[in-house]
Write a structure and sequence with these properties.
The chain is mainly α. Helix content is 52%, strand content 4%. The protein has a two-stranded antiparallel ribbon. The longest helix is centred in the middle third of the chain and has 22 residues, at 94-115. The chain is globular, with a radius of gyration of 17 Å.
């Protein structure tokens, strides 16, 4: 799902949770787990990809065009979700329960919206152990990639799910160029 899609769905869910519970802690945890969870993409971009162009448009294009070589994504995993759910159960912390709820919103949206562009889906990808066994190498996974239209403004790209407008996927050739592939039915 696009970052903008996560922002909208998380904001709506936060409003509903706050209206139902009145809990600032749970709502803040939900915002962190539903939207701010994507900070791990920034960590991957800077630490593992060694990218130094910190403009939001460059960062977003890096992901939309599938230029990543490594996909560590520490916060996007079933294992972390289960660990945090157990911690929330033991501590009964509203903030942690909110984060668990946010992850329970975020991960399925990623699986559904991004996985529809990948043969076989992405259910397995969200296991940290699976990514670790693959050496965190992005080329081991058929991740959704679509060249961002040149001149596209940041906000338009922020709300665009890869492939949504054209139903296309792209591949990366050995030289690192993005090559469009035909749309699938």
């Amino acid at each position: 799902m696009s970052p903008g899609g996560h922002l909208v769905t998380t904001a709506i869910t936060c409003a509903g949770v706050y209206a139902a519970t009145g809990s600032v802690g749970m709502t803040a945890g939900l915002a962190a787990g539903g939207f701010l969870i994507d900070v791990d993409h920034v960590i991957d971009y800077v630490v593992f990809e060694r990218q130094r162009n910190l403009r939001p448009s460059a960062f977003l294009r890096h992901y939309l065009e599938g230029r990543m070589r490594l996909v560590v994504l520490l916060l996007h995993s079933y294992e972390l979700w289960a660990l945090l759910a157990a911690l929330a159960w033991v501590t009964n912390s509203e903030w942690i329960w909110g984060y668990v709820l946010g992850m329970a919103l975020h991960l399925p949206l990623d699986i559904v919206f991004n996985g529809r562009l990948v043969p076989g889906g992405l259910v397995h990808f969200y296991s940290f152990a699976v990514r670790a066994r693959a050496g965190f190498k992005a080329d081991r996974f058929a991740l959704p990639m679509v060249p961002a239209p040149r001149g596209e403004r940041f906000l338009a790209a922020f709300f665009r799910t890869p492939g949504a407008e054209r139903g296309t996927r792209a591949a990366v050739d050995p030289a690192g160029s993005v090559l469009p592939s035909p749309a699938r039915d």
